Amino acid sequence: MPNDLLCPVSATIADALRCIDRNARGIVCLHDDGDRVVAIMTDGDIRRTLLRGFGLDSPVREHANRDFFWMPHGLAHKAYIAKLNDKRQYILVLDEQRRLVSLVSFKDEAMLPVSSINLAGNELHYVLHCIRDNWISSQGRFVQEFEKNFAAYHAMPYALTTTNGTAALHLALAGLGIGPGDEVIVPASTFGATANAVIHAGGIPVFVDIEEDTWCMDPLLLEQAITPATKAIIPVHLYGNPANMEEIAKVAGKHGLFIVEDCAESLGASFPDGTLTGTKSDVSCFSFFSNKVITTGEGGMALARDADLHRKMQQLRDHGVSLARKYWHDYPGFNYRMTNIQAAIGLAQMERIGDFLDMRERIFARYKEHLKDLPGLQMQTIKPGYSAINWLFTVAVTPEFPHSRDALMEILKKRGIDSRPFFPALFHQPAYAPYRRKDEFPVALRMEKEGISLPTSNFLSMANVDKVCEIIVETGYRKKRDI
User: Fold this and answer.
1) Which pTM does this prediction carry?
2) Among 48, 45, 83, which residue's Cα sits nearest to residue 65?
3) Within a domain: 117
């Protein structure tokens, strides 16, 4: 850990930022030629420096904090913890030569969350721009810039911001003309928003089970779910793992069905041909909730290739108002517009999406390295040629593991680590009881009982990944009576 926190005092602010991005701790320790820590700088310090007009090439020594709090190495851990508080988030532990030994942080001593956000880029700068220019609602340049940036990233012609990912799904279905009595096939395992959007459009969600290995919609079950009322399929790239869109597209083409990709969890994931999720459908929908790859707090996006469909969705998003005549409503539309402030945050997040995806890949590799040989844990399969983005690192705790999934979650909680269960199967939840047609969803039911998601984010240190893994490995080799 110390090496990830260190940066030469002769470095620039840009160098310090890169160090902070690598360590994901929000702080950099500046050292002299003798490796002695002489100053520190937090991500907040850097933001304030940039807002004062200094550039990224400015020497970090001119802005760093030389009067920082530190404690000597060798004390009891509780002595360091006692000095932490809301105002003192970090304590540097230094040896006799003032070289860094470790960092004790308020965040590490609190419950380790499943997800946390990283706003260390231009987010504040762009939001302040909105406030200074008085463009804070859905009108403003950042909305258009965010849409253009997102469309270009996916090599798609049209992108449309929305209030959230669920709104994007509803807008997509409405744009495609899905209405009362129309059936839409959705996976039995996913967050409820996928089915809710179908119901809000007036349609009927029809559930199909997921694959044993990828945990995405099983294409082999689609044919038997299709009826004359079927109009669309919504595959979900669950936990960032791309669904088998090639086979799903074959079935959709054979029966003349629309495809709406639910990419809420898969921004940046790709298929064997190198194209990204969100590019294999009539419309694709993304979420920017706080636990997603990039965030705008709340927010969403819809991508489309067809100009007429995009135009219709654009109108529906803005109350159905005509694009040619002010206050003239062509459709009874919605108010699904994203604010300029949200878009400003989204644009700043997209500037660092490469770093975010790299971090998630490192986290995935670290988890896999520690847990791959542990009996009783099944990992999500990523098929050859596919590239997943590790939205949340998720495993199944099978009967071979000495403890149940719920028992493992409780053990992690007692050790200060949050986790979350796999999405419960939709078909037997009260909200979807009217749409239940059968009970044969064995994989969805198994994963509901066995699946667990572990801490994963753009701001998670490798030390914390190791901490989670150590507890799981220790638990995996201990019998129930030993816990």
Assistant:
1) 0.81
2) 45
3) no
Q: Measured between alpha carbons, how far is 102 from 93 in angstroms, rounded to an integer?
A: 5
Element (H, E) at 364: helix 353-371
Kindly state whether residues 72 and 207 are assigned to the same domain.
no
Asked if the structure places residue 362 within a domain, the reply is: yes
Residue 474 lies in a domain: yes
Q: Is 85 exposed, middle or buried (0-12, 13-18, 19+ CB in 10 A)?
A: exposed
End-of-domain residue from the set 350, 371, 397: 350
Parent domain of 215? 123-350
Residues 102 and 183 grouped into a single domain: no
Residues 170 and 102 in one domain: no
Tell whether 289 and 417 lie within a shared domain: no
**pLDDT digit of tens for each residue in the chain (483 aa)?**
567 899 999 999 999 999 998 887 889 999 999 999 999 999 999 999 999 999 999 999 999 999 999 999 999 888 998 898 878 888 999 999 999 999 998 777 777 899 989 998 999 999 999 999 999 999 999 999 999 999 999 999 999 999 999 999 999 999 999 999 999 999 999 999 999 999 999 999 999 999 999 999 999 999 999 999 999 999 999 999 999 999 999 999 999 999 999 999 999 999 999 999 999 999 999 999 999 999 999 999 999 999 999 999 999 999 999 999 999 999 999 999 999 999 999 999 999 999 999 999 999 999 999 999 999 999 999 999 999 999 999 999 999 999 999 999 999 999 889 999 999 999 999 999 999 887 789 999 999 999 999 999 998 999 899 999 999 999 998 655 454
Q: What is the dihedral of CA 333, 338, 339, 341, to 10 degrees?
A: 180
Q: Where is the domain boundary, 84, 109, 134?
A: 109
Q: Is the same domain home to 326 and 460? A: no
Does the residue 417 lie in any domain?
yes
Quick one: 316 and 371 in the same domain? Answer: no
Could you give the residue ranges of the DSSP H alpha helices within 232-306?
A: 245-255
CATH code of the domain covering residue 196: 3.40.640.10
Helix (H) or strand (E) segment spanning residue 30: strand 27-31
CA angle 423–427–430, rounded 5-degree value = 90
Residue 210's Cβ-count burial label (10 Å; 0-12, 13-18, 19+) is buried
Supply 205's token pair. 């969600």
